[in-house]
Amino acid sequence: MMGGAGGAQGPPIPKTQLVRILSKARKLILRRMLEAKRANIEERIQFYKNDADKYKECIMKFAMGQPAMIQGALVEVCQEQNVNVASIGSSIQQHMFDPEVQNMISLMQTITGDMCEGQPFPEEFDKERFKEILRIQTAEVAKYTITDQISSMVAQTASADEIYQLYGLNEIQLGALAIKYESDPDTELRELKERWNEVTRMDLILNQAQRQVPQQHQHGPGCQHNHSH
């Protein structure tokens, strides 16, 4: 995700400059990804329950476009800072044990889930409504056969779009609602989250992700979140 094209690396830069670049890039990525997600929701909703192939195509287009979006933002920030983007990889390697750098790396890996944080949603969607939504989404996901990350992603997205049609609450707002109650100790809510993780096959997804790339930290249903913590 970060570094020069084709694995090329440049000379490392100071830690403070690296952290500043990653922080600026993250803010830019979050803004652009949020804009792209809004456009994706409006594009795919017209195909929901109408054209399964085009619906899946819309979902995959957004997912496949994320690496280029992230790299593009990083390149742009590096250019602003007069730094060769190829130096980012070597700089991360040099400072990889520094707590501040480790924290920034972690934050860069949670962008997909974190883009929903702080987004507004109607006040009437309280904890009890969230539980109601979780039950509906879980029932929707259970209708799908999940064998890998892609099939789980399609099922989760479809469950979010079902809520959009029923309540007018889109995937971004749904993600923000999930984040609000992420650490809530309510027993019933915790059980609903555990059931969500079961039907979305989070065990399978996490195992596959560990063999491929670092897994995106996720919060709940919406913006492809999970309830694993």
Structural features, described:
The protein is an all-alpha fold. Helices cover 66% and strands 0% of the residues. The chain contains ten helices and no strands. Helix 1 packs antiparallel against helix 2 and helix 1 packs parallel to helix 4. The protein is globular. It starts with 14 loop residues before the first helix and ends in an 18-residue tail after the last helix. The C terminus is likely disordered.
Summarize the structure.
By secondary structure, the protein is an all-alpha fold.
In sequence order, what are the helices and strands, one letter per element? Answer: HHHHHHHHHH
Rg for CA atoms = 19 Å
- Main pleated sheet: none
Share of residues in strands: under 5%
Mean pLDDT equals 88
* SS summary, helix count: 10
Q: What percent of residues adopt helix (DSSP H or I)?
A: 55-70%
Low-confidence stretches: 213-219, 225-229
Overall form = globular
Number of strands: 0
Distance between the termini: 25 Å
Query: What structural class do helix, strand and pairing data support?
Result: mainly alpha
Protein traits:
mainly alpha, 229 residues, disordered C terminus, 10 helices, globular
Write the layout of secondary structure elements.
Blueprint: H1 15-45, H2 52-80, H3 86-94, H4 99-108, H5 111-114, H6 127-141, H7 149-167, H8 171-180, H9 187-199, H10 202-211
